[in-house]
Amino acid sequence: MPVHVFVDENKSRGLTLAAAHVPADEVAVNRKALRSLLLPGQERLHFNNETHARRQRIIEVIKGFHLMVDLYRADTDTLAARHLCLQGIVRDIAPTAERLVIERDESILAQDRRLLHEARDRFGCFDTLRWDLLVPKADPLLWVPDAVVWSWVRGGRWRQAVAPFCQLRQV
Predict the structure, then answer these.
(1) Eight-class DSSP state of 41
(2) Which of 2, 11, 32, 55 could cross-link 77 (Cys pair, CB 3.0–4.6 Å)?
(3) The pTM is what?
(4) Are 134 and 141 in contact (CB under 8 A)?
(5) pLDDT at position 1, please?
């Protein structure tokens, strides 16, 4: 079953990238479920800005999705660490993913584009893996790794809430 992979990062305590694997045939229904959580006037969910109760509700909705989230961790938040994490993501999704969507960071856009181009070639998925660098409001499924990586880094009961569908991966 092909998957779409959505990636966001957290720069607290080093660098952690979350890559949410969503079965291709569930993308549309999961987007709709996430959009239904928006408050009037809200363009996107951003876990850091949500209330405690809203965070719990968002996690409950995400738990209902059939997805797995891979976490890639580096001790430092550097461009080199980011590149290692992104290469690890492309390496690991090359056999099954048809689309990779990463939250866009304007300050390193050119570097991300170059890295993704090279990584697709290196891991043999140049012709099979499409990728996009998007702002979070452009695709609600970018809100999933945002919520999961925030919860993981926060620790405690937040990490426990997402741990059943998360796994740490090597960079």
Answers:
(1) T
(2) 11
(3) 0.97
(4) no
(5) 81
